[in-house]
Recover the amino acids of this structure.
């Protein structure tokens, strides 16, 4: 197998990074329109993983994740506007259900797509203030989580974790205590190294999941569980060490670290934590 | 990125696989076990020679050194095929992978002819003299002295952990040749035949058993070594040491992958329904993926540290889970916990306790996990030294 990004994929990653940096601070609508214009919603799985990692890195406020990885694989098409899906049988804690233009519902009889306005969705307050999460009042739901949805959350989580690591590294390189940068202490270095290894491991499994989806490989179900579980495990290490290494400064509303910690945590909690997916892997 | 192998790699793998089918020693032929990492039974010497002659010993090398100028992905396929069938291609792994390989890179034509080729053809075996009582992770602090007088070095000092030294014909030893130079600058690499007057080797048992003799103390007292045995330029030993270890590091992760696969098989019962067993599968998959990534342009020397840390810690963690899952049953020692493979060392199919104890070789030898974390933090993440 070849596990290297090709030149086009590297270029895409660069473009996404530059674009995301450029539109940061603009309105949600403007960011969303930029993504649509660049055709990111139509990206195939591996390219989607690269895009989602960068959006995760930026704590993206748009409905991109739900539209590309929840609605699209269930409905088999892109929505008019934005979309989401209910496929875990509960109708609870559905990403973007309060603002999606179209909602795909998985029922025992198959997939039904309804206009978002027709869905009784009630946004709930959640830990990540930038995420839209809603409960959907729909009955007769079935369970069938697409591999792409798990991969999408994993890629987003990896991006958020990478951002936390970036912020932590900046912090420990700059901040001095006892006359030395914090980052020169071995206790700090070892935590940072463990965060890095966790990110690399989760990213590798996320790319593998995307690759197996793209090639319709029979391992794609297992690979999606592995990606989601690894992202959750990564989040645990990165959240714990990241907040710890930031010290009291990470414990405030005024530091941006909070957004990324919460995004990473939310990606683990949605559609089953690491533990749930480890168990699914055992059952497969 | 794609799941399938390159066609050229596939053809290479198929050719090697057919060679193994045709030439592998039988279980009856391979009855005598090797007792240390530099003791190679007669059948294993013939086996290594067969691989050498066919260019399947170190495929990345040219034919005169037992290879066929294979690419890195082909070399990986070669080692994967050996690992898949649980075959050792050499029972003197350090002689082959480190010492002969560094002689090919740094040695003179004469040294390659006299030492490297005989090691590769398993006519002689070699051991690596790096660590000392006061120089483990901090190799640059080694104290063994070599004084050059005319065309002869006189060596005095002590090595330790020298695997297989008591069974080896020659040592590649790192010594201090310029005591006044800064730590990394005054080192040199010397080939020291073990039958030289003044070389005393004392093997000692490992945690697994008193009679498990691979580690050695090597005492060097007034040992006279001809200048022609100097490998690489005088006082350039640090470069040779780094190059030597680099040879085996690129694909070292495969040995952890092999052990994780053994664990998947041998702990399947104990791991049924246990989340740690799922983690084991994930660690193995992630290790392979990150290993494959090291074959391409994103290759990063510090990335080797990620692989070593991930692989060795995953083996240790899963082995501990397997040990604990067996409860009091795991007290049995010696015991067999995996199938016998006649072409492999038996260490990894022994009791769960021994497997767990041996997993610390992975997190200690070749740069401890702590050193790997420092390398990742400093060279990849840019934290200050």
């Amino acid at each position: 197998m070849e596990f290297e990004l090709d030149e086009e994929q590297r270029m895409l990653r660069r473009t996404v990074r530059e674009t995301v940096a450029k539109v940061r601070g603009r309105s949600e609508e403007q960011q969303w329109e930029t993504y649509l214009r660049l055709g990111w919603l139509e990206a195939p799985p591996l390219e989607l993983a690269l895009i989602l990692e960068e959006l995760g890195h930026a704590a993206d406020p748009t409905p991109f994740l739900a539209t590309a990885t929840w609605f699209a694989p269930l409905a088999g098409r892109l929505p008019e506007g934005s979309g989401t899906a209910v496929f875990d049988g509960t109708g609870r804690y559905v990403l973007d259900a309060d603002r999606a233009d179209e909602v795909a519902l998985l029922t025992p009889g198959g997939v039904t797509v309804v206009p978002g306005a027709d869905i009784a969705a009630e946004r709930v307050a959640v830990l990540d203030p930038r995420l839209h999460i809603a409960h959907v009042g729909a009955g007769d739901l079935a369970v069938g989580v697409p591999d792409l949805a798990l991969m999408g959350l994993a890629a987003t989580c990896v991006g958020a974790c990478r951002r936390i690591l970036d912020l932590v590294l900046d912090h420990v390189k700059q901040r001095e205590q006892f006359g030395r940068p914090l980052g020169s202490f071995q206790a700090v270095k070892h935590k940072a190294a463990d965060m890095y290894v966790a990110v690399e491991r989760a990213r590798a499994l996320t790319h593998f999941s995307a690759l197996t989806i793209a090639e319709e490989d029979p391992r794609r179900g297992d690979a999606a569980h592995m990606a989601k579980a690894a992202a959750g495990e990564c989040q645990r290490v990165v959240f714990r060490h990241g907040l710890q290494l930031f010290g009291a400064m990470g414990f405030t509303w005024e530091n941006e670290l909070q957004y990324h910690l919460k995004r990473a945590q939310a990606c683990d909690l949605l559609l089953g934590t690491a533990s749930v997916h480890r168990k699914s892997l055992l059952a497969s | 990125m794609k799941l399938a192998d390159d066609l050229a790699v596939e053809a290479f793998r198929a050719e090697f696989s057919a060679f193994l089918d045709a030439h592998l020693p039988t279980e009856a032929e391979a009855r005598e076990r090797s007792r240390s990492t530099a003791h190679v039974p007669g059948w294993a010497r013939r086996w290594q020679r067969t691989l050498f002659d066919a260019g399947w010993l170190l495929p990345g090398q040219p034919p005169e050194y037992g290879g066929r100028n294979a690419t890195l992905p082909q070399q990986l396929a070669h080692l994967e095929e050996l690992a898949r069938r649980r075959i050792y291609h050499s029972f003197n792994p350090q002689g082959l992978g480190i010492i002969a390989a560094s002689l090919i890179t740094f040695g003179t034509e004469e040294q390659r002819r006299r030492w490297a080729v005989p090691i590769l053809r398993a006519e002689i075996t070699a051991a690596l003299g790096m660590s000392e009582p006061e120089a483990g992770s901090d190799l640059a602090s080694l104290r063994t002295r070599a004084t050059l007088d005319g065309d002869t070095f006189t060596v005095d000092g002590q090595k330790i952990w020298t695997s297989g030294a008591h069974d080896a014909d020659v040592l590649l030893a790192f010594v201090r040749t310029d005591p006044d130079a800064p730590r990394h600058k005054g080192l040199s690499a010397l080939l020291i035949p073990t039958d030289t007057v003044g070389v005393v080797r004392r093997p000692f048992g490992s945690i697994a058993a008193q009679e498990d003799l691979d580690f050695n103390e090597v005492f060097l007292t007034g040992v006279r070594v001809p200048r022609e045995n100097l490998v690489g330029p005088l006082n350039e030993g640090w470069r040779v040491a780094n190059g030597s270890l680099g040879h085996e590091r690129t694909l070292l992760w495969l040995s952890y992958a092999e052990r994780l696969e053994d664990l998947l098989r041998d702990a399947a019962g104990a791991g049924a329904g246990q989340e740690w067993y799922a983690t084991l599968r994930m660690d193995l998959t992630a290790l392979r993926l990150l290993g494959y990534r090291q074959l391409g342009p994103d290759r990063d020397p510090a990335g080797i540290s990620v692989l070593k840390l991930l692989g060795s810690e995953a083996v240790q963690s899963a082995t501990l889970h397997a040990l604990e899952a067996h409860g009091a049953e795991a007290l049995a020692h010696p015991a067999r916990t995996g199938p016998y493979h006649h072409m492999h060392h038996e260490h990894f199919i022994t009791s769960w306790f021994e497997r767990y104890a041996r997993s610390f070789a992975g997190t200690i030898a070749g740069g401890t996990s702590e050193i790997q974390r420092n390398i990742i933090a400093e060279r990849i993440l840019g934290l200050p030294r």
